[in-house]
Amino acid sequence: MGAAAYLSWLVVAMIGIAIFQIARRVLLWRRGRPAEVAWLAGLAALPRRYLVDVHHVVNRDRGASRMHVPVAGGLVAACVLSLAGLIPALTGSRPLWGLVFAGFSAMLIGAGLVTARRYPHKLPRLSAGRYQRLPVLLLAFAAGGAFTAGLTSIGDPLPPLSILTLFVAALGGIGLALEVARGPMRHALAGAFHLVAHPRPDRFGDGRDTALRTIDLDAPKLGVETPVDFPWNRLLGFDACVQCGRCEAACPAFAVGQPLSPKHLIADLARAQSGGDAPAYGGAPYPNARSVGGTGGPDRPIIGENAVIHPDTLWSCTTCRACVEECPMMIEHVDAIIDLRRFQTLELGAVPAKAVDPLDNLRGCDEQNGQPLAARADFAAGMGVPVIRDIGEADILLWLGQGAYDLRYQRTLRALIRLLQMADVDFAILGDEERDCGDLARRLGDEATFQRLALDNIAVLSGYRFKRILTADPHALHVLRNEYQGHGGHYEVIHHAALIAELLESGQLSVGARQDLSVTYHDPCYLGRYNGEFDAPRAVLDWIGVERREMTRSGRRAMCCGGGGGAPVTDIPGDTRIPDLRMAQAKDTDASIVAVACPGCTAMLEGVVGEVPEVRDVAELVLQAVEAGRVAAQPAAGSPPQRVTA
Amino acid sequence: MRVVVLLSAGRHPVSGRAILPPLEAQAIAMALALDPHCYGLHAGCTPDGVADAPGYGLPSLDLLTIDADVDPVPALAADLSKRKPDLIVAGRRGQGGNDTGLLPYALAEALHLPLLNDIVSAAQEDSDGMGRFEQALPKGAKRRVTMLLPAIVTVHPLAPAAAPFAYAKARRGTIEFREGPSGEAAPGLFETRSRRARPKLMRQADAESDGGGAAIIDPDPDDAARMIVDYLERLGVRRLRNEASRTTDHRD
């Protein structure tokens, strides 16, 4: 029997230390609010969630998956096989130690790759501080273990050397186990628990779960003030963070110098749980960080100038979910932000100054800019759009949304209405019975106003018969489709690009010759990431025969225009503006047109000055193509082509 | 210093929904700065609208229940003369509900208190019960006024912004209902009359249509246009063509 037998006991000791360390965090999590967790289903789903869902995200950065698979796989394999060495019959088995050697070797390769990511220069999005020790510990454990097991498997020719390598392995191994409470290794255990007890189990596999959770407005405290106000499995989620910084790299607010970094925010929430004894944060600071004076603690406020996180950080978020999409640990950043905003808005009334008027207007007259509901359809005067109150039922109910008050977006809505009329679609609008859908109120944390608007809208909708709701506003689409369900509103909601695709495919609309345009499509967050609709707008663009170019960040990983989550209302200053950045990305494709499909994106991108691509909604482009088709179809009898109206 | 805020049941200018007038939310912020234990006072039949006041930070709210058509001034005067606040803060004009904007003046008369209108800031003098105020004047001018308390002041929109509304504070706020005196109906200060007499033309039109017009369903557009022109000429809205040209000749 060689030194390798002690490897088994080393692993036992490491497990003991890790359990002790994580237990300290478990005690903190247990102070959180209760949460319903389907334990058995979660445990059963764990392997699939880890090996498929997590790996899918990790693998987007090939370097990361090439590093993580050997280092984590090697670590687990080597430890499990070493434990097998405790079985007396196997203790002296040379083949077993050969296998252990293979495990440690794999881990050693991975550890080398971890080291390459941090030395001599770490990737900018990674955290320094405690995290810089990780490669050293991994290398020591992997190398020590590999040599010890390897020497044993060939008969332990040099016992003193074996003792030495065992010692190195022990230093590395114990160091890693100690890191489980506060350091990088916490992600391994907390991450596994998080996958089991995830607050949104439906998001795994092919599922999607992006609707904000409703809250009971009669609860003693609304929203989250202190760490213990979070449900316990959300606290667990914050601890799962490994500070890889992918969220930070994807965050539009971080990119333009607003004081938000999702990674820093989650690290702060994890640090706030334990208060003063948390290690310092080693990542990039919040851009243009506002100073905060407080230390956290389980029962101490999180948000405030004298707390852990500055309010400007909280209000910089556009709720675009880019961070959630990128997070390999499946952390739900946006949920945390909304919970924190709810407390600020509902309990303290501490909303940014510019958000006061819109919220007052939504409470007072159901429209964020204080305009009468009866004026919503003014833009369509003379187009002969029926109001559903007059006809009682229609195939399609057209939800006009906030864009109907915006001069620019009215052009899009008129184009959409003309397309519907050309295709003989049976549709109607709600007229003055359409209230704001409540998206803005909810993202700004005013859940009370959201719930009132939702119930009022649901009451109105229940009075009419229609098959589907059509909207050109992805925010309204998301709220109507997913968030009214919590209040008893179940509707089939379709985005205008999807309906136009249907009309083109069924031949109800026909387009003319190929359009000589180069177009790049900007995915709205609330249509794409929130609702998984990436294809219909692209199919429409292909159908009308424009040359379609993709921006570097498109589809699931598209960058936000800066218009969501109430960010245009709260207007937290940064170095530049999010739409400027996005427009620069569009310009890089050399396309002459940015195709949009959302009133928010239209307004934000139209606001970019300078020589930039033209902003056109998908509906406008289709109308242009359809009209071109009609002109071409007319007999060319020397008379100038006329615009054909429906 | 004991401060009371007079609250009125306003109406939202767009939706007509009962709300607390924004100016009175500013009045609450001003009162809170002077007296953290200030309270609100409203005389009316329901708490609609004023129930929002705790959401703007008002610590407590008393509602004197009176019938809908009863003049609130005696009820408020009786209550205020009993509780003797140092400062009474009110809005400056009617905000769309049953308020006239005259109440602070009527109350000042009833209580024999001085009234200072349109203040933008208020502070208490350290000595002997004086209040120091800033009054907004036209064209952005301001005047500093020091006066002996108790007094009534009305708040100008240029006063510091109100605290944002907080739903949970409004929900926790309690309203103390107290029976107000069952006074007489509000005196009819004004005669109700439509804004202007109906134009002569319309009266004529009415008289004409009494004779019974003809409804023509789905006419030819040219016929319809001719009929409308004839009709307008008959009414005198449009002068006959030859008449019109004659007038022009005269001018030449």
UniProtKB/TrEMBL annotation, chain A:
<feature type="transmembrane region" description="Helical">
    <location>
        <begin position="6"/>
        <end position="23"/>
    </location>
</feature>
<dbReference type="InterPro" id="IPR004017">
    <property type="entry name" value="Cys_rich_dom"/>
</dbReference>
<dbReference type="Pfam" id="PF02754">
    <property type="entry name" value="CCG"/>
</dbReference>
<dbReference type="InterPro" id="IPR051460">
    <property type="entry name" value="HdrC_iron-sulfur_subunit"/>
</dbReference>
<keyword id="KW-0472">Membrane</keyword>
<keyword id="KW-0812">Transmembrane</keyword>
<feature type="domain" description="4Fe-4S ferredoxin-type">
    <location>
        <begin position="232"/>
        <end position="261"/>
    </location>
</feature>
<keyword id="KW-0411">Iron-sulfur</keyword>
<protein>
    <submittedName>
        <fullName>(Fe-S)-binding protein</fullName>
    </submittedName>
</protein>
<dbReference type="Pfam" id="PF13187">
    <property type="entry name" value="Fer4_9"/>
</dbReference>
<feature type="domain" description="4Fe-4S ferredoxin-type">
    <location>
        <begin position="305"/>
        <end position="336"/>
    </location>
</feature>
<keyword id="KW-0408">Iron</keyword>
<feature type="transmembrane region" description="Helical">
    <location>
        <begin position="69"/>
        <end position="90"/>
    </location>
</feature>
<dbReference type="InterPro" id="IPR017900">
    <property type="entry name" value="4Fe4S_Fe_S_CS"/>
</dbReference>
<dbReference type="InterPro" id="IPR021872">
    <property type="entry name" value="Csal_0991-like_N"/>
</dbReference>
<keyword id="KW-1133">Transmembrane helix</keyword>
<dbReference type="GO" id="GO:0051539">
    <property type="term" value="F:4 iron, 4 sulfur cluster binding"/>
</dbReference>
<feature type="transmembrane region" description="Helical">
    <location>
        <begin position="136"/>
        <end position="155"/>
    </location>
</feature>
<keyword id="KW-0004">4Fe-4S</keyword>
<feature type="transmembrane region" description="Helical">
    <location>
        <begin position="96"/>
        <end position="116"/>
    </location>
</feature>
<dbReference type="GO" id="GO:0046872">
    <property type="term" value="F:metal ion binding"/>
</dbReference>
<dbReference type="GO" id="GO:0005886">
    <property type="term" value="C:plasma membrane"/>
</dbReference>
TrEMBL record, chain B:
<dbReference type="InterPro" id="IPR014730">
    <property type="entry name" value="ETF_a/b_N"/>
</dbReference>
<dbReference type="Pfam" id="PF01012">
    <property type="entry name" value="ETF"/>
</dbReference>
<protein>
    <recommendedName>
        <fullName>Electron transfer flavoprotein alpha/beta-subunit N-terminal domain-containing protein</fullName>
    </recommendedName>
</protein>
<dbReference type="InterPro" id="IPR014729">
    <property type="entry name" value="Rossmann-like_a/b/a_fold"/>
</dbReference>
<keyword id="KW-0813">Transport</keyword>
<keyword id="KW-0249">Electron transport</keyword>
<feature type="domain" description="Electron transfer flavoprotein alpha/beta-subunit N-terminal">
    <location>
        <begin position="19"/>
        <end position="176"/>
    </location>
</feature>
<feature type="region of interest" description="Disordered">
    <location>
        <begin position="178"/>
        <end position="197"/>
    </location>
</feature>
